[in-house]
Every structure is written in structure tokens, then in C-alpha cells.
Design a protein that fits this description.
It is built from ten helices and ten strands. By secondary structure, the chain is α/β, with parallel strands linked by helices. The strands form two sheets. The chain has a five-stranded parallel sheet, with helices on both faces. The protein has a five-stranded mixed sheet with strand order 7-8-6-9-10, with helices on both faces.
Length: 303
């Protein structure tokens, strides 16, 4: 673990740095509170800080206040070094945001134990953040393809519809269906079918613009939301996605599998209003027409 040390006394700073390295820590060393604050504001700031109370520029207590004002994640653990042993001073330091303190002169073993406790808390915080992010991923993403799940893509579409109405922008949603997907499952098995779904998700994600979204709507159907697109270019955008799937076979455990998809696009123009399911109904109507007219094509339905 990396530790930021802010100590203005050169001898104390060198002693502290030497001990920390001996205990297996990397160190980032600052000579005053001002330079420490500059480093703390960076994204790569260490999770554990050892701050001297009395320093030129910004003292340790003010640094604690500023660290807590950032409300950053992951949590930053602060150990305050102080020559003050008055209880009121210690309370002031803790109220400013310090997690622990140690009074000078300190015993090296006591410092080592307190630093170890801080490292444990910082590492536990990282584990909690990882668990929270994993739960969020599970709640919003499809387990097989890694794309947004049905609920998440519909929530995104809701927000984009509201935003488009507010900004008077066009919005379109494509309902994509893999052609003859049941035949792929029946011929090669469901494992190959899953491989096709995963590869399709990967190709779509690579072909989309950074600000567009795709989600698994159900089975072999996907919703592709494209925001603020010129009506004249909508077919071109969705046709590019269709070609990304059909231009070369999908590599699977059963060998290359040719995959095509039909796309129905519902379009709400900037001066019209339609709710989420009304827009999806338009896309569904267009998808039905694409299937009727031979599949592997894009059809549009506009408000």
C-alpha cells in the first residue's frame, strides 16, 4: 500500500519514511501542507495519509477538514501526528476528520500497529466498494451478455425521451431480433446460441457511438437507443450495426456460424410526444415489416 507522509521537519520526515519502507509500504513524501493538499486532490492520492499537525502552509487539522470535504471514494484514512497531548486539542483534530492520532515522540512499534490498523480499514473499504459495484452490475446488466438488462435499458430510454422532449431533439430506438435464432439453437445447441449472443453483444458495443446504448430486451431481442440523430442518417446508423453482425461469421465451438439480424426502428421527432412503450410499439411494427420483407434489413416507423 502507498502512504502519503506530510512532515515539515526533515529529520522526522526521513525517519518516518525509512520506517514505513522497512514495513513494506511505498511512500509519497511532502514537506508542507500546501504540497500535500495538491497531491491529495489527485485521483491517484494514496488511501492512507500520515499528517503532521504543525506544518507551514496548511496544518494537519486543516488538511483533515479539506480531505473530508472531498467526500471521495475510496475512503481516505488519516493518521494525525501531534506533539499536543491536551484532550481538547485531540478532540479538535478528530472532529476535523482524523481517524486516529499518535503523539510525539512515538514508539515505532506503536506507529506500526496504528498504520496497520489504518491499512486494514482502507482495504476493507475497497472490498465493500467492490461488493457494492458488483451488486450494481448484477442489478443493471444482463448476466450472459454483459449488456444493460431489460429494466436498465428501459430506464435509460425513459430518461432519453424526457431529455429529448426538453431539448427538442430527435430520438430513436431500434428493436433488433436475430434472424432464425431458434434454428441456431436447434442445430448447434444452446451453448453455441449463448456464444452467438455474447459475440453479438460485443460487436454491437464496438459499433455504437460512445453516447448510444444497447440492452438485452429479452431472449434474442435487443434495444438500441440512438440519441439526437438526424432523421436522414438514422437508417445509415442502424444499417451499420446490422452489417457489423453479418459481415463475417461468428466463431463458435461448432465452427463459424452466419448470423444476421432484422431491425425495426421507432422514431419520435423533436416536435412530437410518445411514451416509452409507444416508441417501442413503433419499433415493433417496423421489425415485423422487416421480417415480412425478407429479414436482414432495417425498417423505420416514425411518429
Amino acid at each position: 500500500m502507498k502512504i502519503l507522509v506530510a512532515e515539515d521537519d526533515p529529520i522526522s520526515r526521513m525517519k518516518l519514511e525509512t520506517m514505513l519502507r522497512k514495513w513494506g509500504y511505498e511512500t509519497v513524501v511532502c514537506q508542507d501542507g500546501t504540497s500535500a493538499w495538491e497531491l491529495i486532490q489527485r485521483e491517484e492520492c494514496p488511501q492512507l495519509l500520515i499528517l503532521d499537525w504543525m506544518m507551514p502552509g496548511l496544518d494537519g487539522v486543516e488538511l483533515c477538514r479539506r480531505v473530508r470535504s472531498l467526500s471521495r471514494e475510496p475512503y481516505v484514512y488519516v493518521l494525525l501526528l501531534t506533539a499536543r497531548d491536551d484532550k481538547d486539542d485531540i478532540v479538535r483534530g478528530m472532529e476535523a476528520g482524523a481517524d486516529d492520532y499518535i503523539t510525539k515522540p512515538y514508539h515505532p512499534h506503536e506507529l506500526e500497529v496504528r498504520v496497520r490498523a489504518g491499512r486494514r480499514i482502507a482495504e476493507l473499504n475497497l472490498e465493500l466498494l467492490a461488493a457494492r459495484n458488483a451488486l450494481k452490475q448484477q442489478a443493471t446488466h444482463d448476466a450472459l451478455t454483459g449488456l444493460l438488462n431489460r429494466r436498465a435499458i428501459l430506464e435509460y430510454l425513459d430518461k432519453e425521451l424526457a431529455r429529448g422532449l426538453r431539448r427538442q431533439e430527435n430520438l430513436c430506438v431500434g428493436l433488433m431480433d436475430i434472424d432464425h435464432f431458434k434454428l441456431i439453437n436447434d442445430t448447434h445447441g444452446h451453448q453455441v446460441g449463448d456464444e452467438v449472443l455474447c459475440e453479438l453483444a460485443s460487436r454491437l458495443s464496438q459499433a455504437l457511438r460512445p453516447y448510444d446504448r444497447v440492452g438485452r430486451y429479452g431472449g434474442e431481442e435487443f434495444l438500441v437507443v440512438i440519441s439526437d440523430c438526424d432523421c436522414a442518417l438514422i437508417r445509415k446508423h442502424y444499417d451499420r450495426l446490422r452489417l457489423a453482425l453479418s459481415e463475417k461469421p461468428f466463431a463458435t465451438a461448432a465452427g463459424p456460424v452466419a448470423v444476421t439480424a432484422s431491425i425495426g426502428v421507432g422514431i419520435v421527432q423533436r416536435d412530437r410526444f410518445v411514451d416509452t412503450y409507444g416508441l417501442i410499439r413503433l419499433a415493433d411494427q417496423a421489425l415485423y415489416r422487416a421480417k415480412e420483407q425478407g429479414r436482414n434489413r432495417v425498417e423505420l416507423e416514425m411518429t
